Every structure is written in structure tokens, then in C-alpha cells.
């Protein structure tokens, strides 16, 4: 199956409670993450994370499903129609 390129936007409230779990999930799926940027927003009490990902729809769905089940985590993902060869 061909891999696709996509993005995941994550907003975290109560970072102190879930940051360790988020990092474990992201480390577990590191092979699918091309780039990651995290920005704290002290003004709003939020943490913002953007991911550029490469994977099959099932692989990306696994990442978003695990993250989305964490308390205080909301996210949106989008896969482009761009396909790349799987390793």
C-alpha cells in the first residue's frame, strides 16, 4: 500500500497531565512523523503541536486515534492525495 503525506494539528489543555502520554505515543509512531513543531501558549493555557506525517491511512489513523482519546487533547488531521512509495 502506498503512503500518503498529511498534517495533524493538536491542541492540548492541561499539558501537565498528558504530556508524558503524548510523547510516548509520538515516539511510538516516530517512523510516520516527518516534522514536529510545538508551541506553548501561556496566554491561553494551551500547547499547540503540528505534525507533518507520512503513512498509510491506517497508520495515521492509529496515531490520531490514540492521541484523540487522551483527556484535554483535540485534533484535526488531513491526508493529501499525494502518494509516496512505501519503504
TrEMBL record:
Pfam families: TM1266-like. InterPro entries: Acetolactate_synth/TF_NikR_C, ACT-like_dom_sf, FeFe-hyd_TM1266. SUPFAM superfamilies: ACT-like. This is Putative iron-only hydrogenase system regulator.
Amino acid at each position: 500500500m502506498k503512503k500518503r503525506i498529511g498534517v495533524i494539528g493538536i491542541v492540548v489543555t492541561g499539558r501537565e497531565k498528558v504530556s508524558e502520554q503524548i510523547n510516548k505515543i509520538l515516539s511510538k509512531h516516530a517512523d510516520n512523523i516527518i516534522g514536529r513543531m510545538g508551541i506553548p501558549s501561556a496566554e491561553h493555557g494551551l500547547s499547540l503541536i503540528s505534525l507533518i506525517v507520512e503513512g498509510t491511512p491506517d497508520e495515521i489513523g492509529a496515531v490520531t486515534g490514540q492521541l484523540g482519546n487522551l483527556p484535554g487533547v483535540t485534533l484535526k488531521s488531513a491526508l493529501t492525495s499525494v502518494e509516496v512509495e512505501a519503504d
